[in-house]
Specification:
about 90 residues; mainly alpha; single chain; about 10% strand
Length: about 90
């Protein structure tokens, strides 16, 4: 099965997390080793999706199949994209 067709994504990777956000998927993140989680924490914080984290067995109870309302996170992601494009353009031109 492909991520694009998934109804629910459970991942422990940054790439699974960011692709779930880009594709507007209902997802949860099983947090990896603390040394490897900073990028995941950052993107969840930047998009306002920190409630998608599963850290303990008790957190499993919050998993549901209801879709995430992506209107807020999508606006934040669009802003991050624009900032990245401006930075990249400045880096290339200078």
């Amino acid at each position: 099965a492909r991520l694009r067709d998934a109804k629910l994504v459970i991942t422990s990777s940054f790439h699974g997390t960011i692709l779930s956000i880009i594709l507007n998927k209902n997802f949860y993140v099983l947090m990896p080793d603390p040394k490897k989680r900073s990028r995941i924490d950052n993107i969840l914080s930047m998009t306002g999706l920190t409630d998608r984290v599963i850290e303990t067995e008790a957190d499993i109870e919050k998993i549901n199949l209801e879709d995430i309302n992506y209107s807020g996170p999508q606006k934040k992601l669009d802003k991050l994209r624009q900032e990245s494009l401006v930075w990249l353009k400045n880096a290339i031109e200078n």
